[in-house]
Design brief:
The chain contains ten helices and 43 strands. By secondary structure, the protein is of the alpha+beta class. It folds into four domains: about 1-165, no CATH class; about 175-265 and about 275-295, no CATH class; about 310-535, Glycosidases (TIM Barrel), CATH 3.20.20.80; about 535-675, no CATH class.
């Protein structure tokens, strides 16, 4: 039987100074000694008759069940409950892994703690067993209140010896049964209503049914629930080794369970999260996170980045042309795509002649020896078939004469098995000594090169391009921003996920400092402060290309004026990035993105691109200040920008309207017309 030891027996609120009767803001400013700013002057503790441990700070009340570890937090007129933590996973000294419940600790000692503005309860758990044998593992769980913010704060603190903690949950999932909806930056953003009719079971996962932060499961490290006009927002403050388990059913609602993952075999360090009470819904949550991103330096405005990289200004209001010189199918030994540089030049000249093209950002794939997705990271020298060095130089000269920017696709995570420098000693090595190998892309089988080696390849390849007179205006470094960080156990280059992100950022910085524009695949939070743009965002869809949940531009609400995001401008429903019900052009409008332009565009394509480009030119440096769902199903939406521009779209009818401060433009995307 579990023995619960409580090391304190406070049954009443502490006696506070006279100022305690004031609101905390006034009490804080009324302080005349350091003692009066201690957390216990603002956050009271008591043990209720029910056995619940309670923390009270103004209208914020945290109740912790010291046996089940369920938590209820109340504040701002709302109350939200965390379920009991799910099973943890431990590794024993003999290498075997066992599941256990944190609640199975034979000893739970509750100790009060305070620092800065935080006061809370630390539960010291010990006496775990596996197969009847005692384990030397100890875990401390902290739950507290930060009086300076009114937030609840949670920490998981491992004490590992021979037994290591591999996976844990703290706190448990926010209970989704009694809320209106769950809001997540899952890809661009989704809202899952409580009564969503379909089961959602761990989409876009990275490890089993766990989706890691900084992948498609969570572009940004937060999520929340809404109930009427109140919300609770869960923010992961140690995101590098964190993830979620997402599940929804019509009966139980949505469950988003925080998961703490080991790093290089051990939990290793304290994991931390907080719960914020929010007046309002998904917009208010996004704006709260925008404040957090500014506070921690993740947010850097486009204006700041232009001051550092002046060529970046050319992207505002510019279309993006994504072209491929060559893609070789190594399995069938044929060219899957092939347009030589002279052909690319002619196609762009046609656009100039028929429509005019004063601005363009040209992203070019496949300049390497065997083209796109082949031989990486040894893709160079420049391939001869598309025109060789001379053809590439002429293409660059043509682009620069027209004031266009040209960037190259480069890939420094995949290492193809037929790459000249392929060596198992360079690869990302799993804990068991094996390597990831797949045969998915055009170039055939590939493994993964450790990110500790990536910058050396970035430097070598771009030095070569500079020496032959074919230096680009920037580079797109594929997958670095979308694939969560790799871990590597090779003794010569052990690497944690945190170190992996650091190595990837060094590659981004090299491109930015030596070439100019740096981009990657998708807009994950850790990379925003460095990147100038990404290739795209995606939306949460199921295997049948249907939305799961209602798509929302949560990322845009946070970061529209911090990074450029291109959008398709096609008017047909569905694409690789969207559900089959969605019109991409309308998403480009609602998020005021940078428009993609097909190199084979017709007049209607160009008109759509120009509409989006004008919108981007006007508001590309501005915040999206508001977003509204104008219908319960979210098919009709409206966004507002800082200059007062209002964009309204209807995915069912195809109608759209852009109301600028000085004019209004509207039309229909299905039966194409512009008024």
């Amino acid at each position: 039987m579990k023995k619960l030891i409580v090391t304190f027996a406070l049954c009443a609120l502490p006696i506070l100074p006279a100022a305690a009767g004031l609101p905390w803001t006034e009490q804080m400013t009324a302080a005349v000694t350091p003692e009066e700013l201690k957390a216990d002057r603002f956050v009271a503790f008591r043990k209720a008759d029910s056995g619940m441990l309670e923390l009270i700070c103004g209208d914020t009340v945290l109740q912790l069940n010291p046996r089940s570890f369920e938590i209820t937090v109340s504040g701002k007129g709302a109350s939200f409950t965390f379920r009991a933590p799910e099973e943890a996973l431990v590794r024993l000294q003999d290498g075997s892994e066992k599941s256990l419940q944190l609640q199975d600790a034979q000893s739970v000692i509750a100790v009060p703690e305070q620092w800065a503005g935080i006061r809370g309860i630390a539960l010291a758990l010990s006496g775990f067993k596996a197969d009847g044998k005692p384990l030397d593992l100890k875990v401390r769980l902290f739950a507290g209140v930060d009086y300076a913010t009114g937030d609840a704060v949670f920490e998981l603190r491992p004490e590992e010896k021979e037994t290591t903690l591999r996976l844990a949950t703290w706190p448990g999932a926010l209970d989704g049964r009694d809320v209106d909806a769950t809001v997540m930056p899952h890809t661009q953003g989704i809202l899952i209503p409580r009564n969503w009719p379909k089961v959602i079971d761990a989409p876009y996962t990275d490890q089993g049914k766990i989706g890691l932060v900084y992948g498609r499961s969570l572009y940004m490290p937060w999520w929340g629930v809404t109930s009427k006009d109140k919300s609770a927002m869960f923010l992961i403050e140690t995101p590098d080794d964190a993830g979620i388990r997402l599940f929804h059913s019509p009966e139980e609602g949505t469950s988003v369970t925080p998961k703490w993952l080991h790093t290089l075999g051990r939990m290793g360090y304290t994991r931390r999260a907080r719960l914020k009470f929010i007046d309002g819904g998904y917009v208010a949550m996004a704006k709260a996170y925008r404040g957090t991103a500014k506070e921690n330096g993740t947010f850097r405005s486009i204006t700041e980045k232009i001051a550092e990289t002046p060529s970046y200004a050319k992207l505002i209001g510019s279309p993006i042309l994504h072209v491929t010189a060559r893609q070789y199918d190594a399995r069938n030994k044929v060219d899957a795509l092939f347009t030589p540089y002279v052909g690319l030049t002619r196609k762009i000249e046609r656009l100039q002649k028929e429509f005019s093209l004063p601005q363009a950002y040209i992203h070019i794939d496949g300049i390497g020896y065997r083209g796109y997705d082949n031989l990486e990271p040894d893709q160079l020298p420049v391939g001869k078939k598309a025109g060789g060095k001379e053809g590439l130089r002429k293409f660059l000269d043509f682009a620069h004469r027209n004031n266009y920017l040209v960037v190259y696709h480069q890939q420094y995570r995949d290492m193809y098995l037929d790459a000249p420098s392929y060596n198992k000693e360079l690869l990302v090595t799993r804990e068991d000594g094996t390597h990831h190998v797949e045969d998915t892309w055009a170039g055939g089988a590939n493994a993964l090169v450790c990110a500790t080696r990536a910058l050396d390849y970035v430097r070598r390849n771009n030095t070569y391009l500079r020496r032959i007179g074919a230096q680009s205006d920037g580079c797109y470094l594929d997958v670095f921003a979308v694939v969560p960080g790799d871990e590597c156990y090779h003794p010569d280059h052990r690497m944690s996920r945190t170190q992996c992100y650091e190595q990837r950022r060094r590659c981004f910085d090299y491109i930015k400092n030596n070439l100019g524009i740096v981009s990657s695949e998708e807009p994950v939070d850790w990379a925003v402060r460095t990147l100038h743009l990404v290739h795209h965002t995606v939306w949460a869809v199921d295997g049948e290309r249907n939305n799961f949940g209602i798509p929302l531009p949560l990322f845009t609400l946070v970061y529209h004026d911090a990074i450029v995001v291109p959008f398709e401008t096609t008017r047909e429903r569905g694409s690789y990035y969207y559900a089959k019900t969605e019109i991409p052009f309308l998403h480009a409008l609602i998020s005021a993105g940078m428009p993609y332009l097909s190199i084979d565009a017709n007049a209607q394509d160009m008109e759509a691109v120009r509409l989006v480009a004008e919108l981007h030119k006007r508001v590309g440096l501005q915040e999206m200040t508001n977003h509204e769902m104008l219908s319960a199903d979210g098919r009709k939406q409206r966004s507002t920008y800082a200059d007062g521009t209002i964009v309204t779209v209807d995915q069912d009818s195809g109608d759209w309207e852009i109301r600028y401060p000085d004019k209004t433009v509207k039309g229909n995307a299905i039966d194409w017309k512009v008024n």
